[in-house]
């Protein structure tokens, strides 16, 4: 459920485990937080609620520094839900909210409106006027209110915390792959196809010109992209920038879709930036431009193919990440009671079809009902908490000395 204010919150969005943040981009750091939000919510039998702001509070406080967002609000909500939130509140920030001191923010919003039962944040969380409240303040307020407060570890990339600010910086520099590593997926823009100068078709490379783009467009240059037209993806060569060859100063975003024929005027398309080919150049004549465009298209074909192979590899990495979250959950939720019966958790592996294989160690032969609990009780719980898990197998290794 998505809700856009704190007034009259429906009951599904109250009494939840809450995470608050801008969540711009819903990057890998945010997703670790949301995974914890979900496990904590599940343990407490409460909904997992993500609260975000639109526009970014800086847009109200210091508009000249307002960052261009990485995602549009609808996509942010979609990504937050896919990462584990049952409910998403996208609050239209106003001065009244931003003027609340940390104490008042906690009392009025977190306890008052949201009626939160627990909080989950990252170590660099800030709240209240001027971000005066930090995780220590939050921990203290939660302790006083006897509610759990989980602070997850920072997700880092190249030795530095992944953050929305860093991702914006990478995109502005054209470092598409760096942005993709931090996001855990390609950067996506959306825009409406409008009429260009109609020159593209005459040189054999028709282009869809995009306008009304609500998110950050990477640095000027040429990129291999994937264009989503409705449900169908197409490989594309995207040019961002002016047309110096034709002495045109207007900065445009135009895409030549490979293997596509037909009109796109008026359609909204979504575009994933996969990799950067080169900067914009001034060509001596039309023939030189056409020759370069043909090379660009060949290069796009090659790179899109490579990207698809890499995607296969990165889905293996995502599975490994999920597997470590599951292991953490088992250690927290199952291991303590298992220890009293002489058992302990061994390892977990997750296959691409969602089959989770668990290994347990027992210092004696487990009793039938203990096996039963491990196999069935836990399987049901795991499938509820981690919907990616479709089935569970358990192997018990008995360390019995004979
Ligand atoms: C993949 C690609 C790369 C491009 N690279 C350049 C470039 O380096 N320099 C340039 O002046 N124009 C470049 N263009 C822009 C073309 O000049 C432009 O597509 C053409 O002028 C058609 O414009 P129109 O869509 O407004 O009709 C590129 C276009 C595409 C699709
Ligand atoms: N790399 C990270 N690892 C874990 N948690 C993170 C990470 N980055 C942010 N968080 C947490 O996610 C929540 C929302 O963070 P928010 O989106 O405001 O920060 P951010 O991504 O660092 O953005 P910005 O660069 O704009 O500060 C906070 O609790 C924050 O501590």
TrEMBL record:
Entry superkingdom: Bacteria
Catalytic activity, as annotated: riboflavin + ATP = FMN + ADP + H(+); FMN + ATP + H(+) = FAD + diphosphate
EC class (word): transferase
Pathway: Cofactor biosynthesis; FAD biosynthesis; FAD from FMN: step 1/1; Cofactor biosynthesis; FMN biosynthesis; FMN from riboflavin (ATP route): step 1/1
Keywords: ATP-binding, FAD, Flavoprotein, FMN, Kinase, Multifunctional enzyme, Nucleotide-binding, Nucleotidyltransferase, Transferase
Riboflavin kinase domain boundaries: 182-305
Gene Ontology molecular function: any one: ATP binding
Pfam family, one: Flavokinase
TM stretches of this protein: none
Function: Catalyzes the phosphorylation of riboflavin to FMN followed by the adenylation of FMN to FAD.
The protein's name in its UniProt record: Bifunctional riboflavin kinase/FMN adenylyltransferase
Phylogenetic classification of the source organism: Bacteria, Pseudomonadati, Planctomycetota, Planctomycetia, Kolteriales
């Amino acid at each position: 459920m998505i809700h856009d204010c704190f007034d009259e919150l429906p009951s599904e969005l109250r009494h939840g485990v809450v995470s608050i943040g801008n969540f711009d981009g819903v990057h890998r750091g945010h997703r670790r937080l949301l995974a914890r939000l979900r496990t904590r919510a599940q343990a407490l039998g409460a909904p997992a609620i993500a609260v975000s702001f639109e526009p970014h509070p800086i847009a109200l406080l210091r508009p000249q520094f307002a960052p261009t967002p990485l995602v549009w609000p609808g996509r942010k909500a979609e990504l937050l839900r896919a990462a584990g939130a049952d409910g998403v509140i996208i609050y239209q920030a106003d001065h009244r909210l931003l003027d609340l001191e940390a104490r008042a923010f906690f009392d009025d919003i977190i306890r008052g409106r949201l009626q939160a039962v627990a909080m989950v944040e990252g170590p660099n969380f800030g709240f209240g006027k001027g971000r005066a409240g930090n995780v220590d303040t939050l921990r203290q307020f939660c302790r006083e209110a006897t509610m759990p407060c989980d602070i997850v570890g920072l997700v880092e990339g190249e030795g530095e915390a992944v953050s929305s600010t860093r991702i914006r910086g990478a995109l502005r520099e054209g470092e598409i792959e760096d942005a993709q590593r931090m996001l855990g997926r390609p950067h996506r823009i959306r825009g409406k196809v409008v009429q260009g100068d109609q020159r593209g078709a005459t040189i054999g490379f028709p282009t869809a010109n995009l306008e009304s783009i609500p998110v950050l467009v990477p640095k000027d240059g040429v990129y291999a992209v994937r264009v989503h037209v409705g449900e169908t993806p197409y490989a594309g060569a995207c040019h961002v920038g002016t047309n110096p060859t034709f002495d045109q100063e207007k900065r445009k975003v135009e895409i030549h879709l490979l293997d596509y024929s037909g009109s796109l005027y008026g359609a909204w398309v979504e575009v994933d930036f996969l990799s950067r080919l080169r900067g914009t150049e001034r060509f001596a004549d039309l023939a030189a431009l056409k020759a370069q465009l043909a090379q660009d298209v060949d290069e796009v074909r090659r790179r899109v193919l490579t990207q698809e192979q890499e995607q296969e590899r990165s889905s293996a990495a995502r599975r490994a990440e999920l597997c470590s979250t599951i292991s953490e959950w088992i250690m927290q939720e199952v291991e303590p009671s298992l220890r009293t019966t002489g058992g302990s958790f061994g390892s977990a592996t997750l296959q691409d079809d969602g089959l989770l294989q668990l290994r347990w160690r027992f210092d004696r032969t487990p009793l039938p009902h203990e096996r039963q609990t491990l196999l069935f009780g836990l399987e049901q719980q795991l499938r509820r908490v981690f919907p990616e898990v479709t089935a569970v197998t358990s192997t018990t290794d008995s360390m019995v000395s004979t």
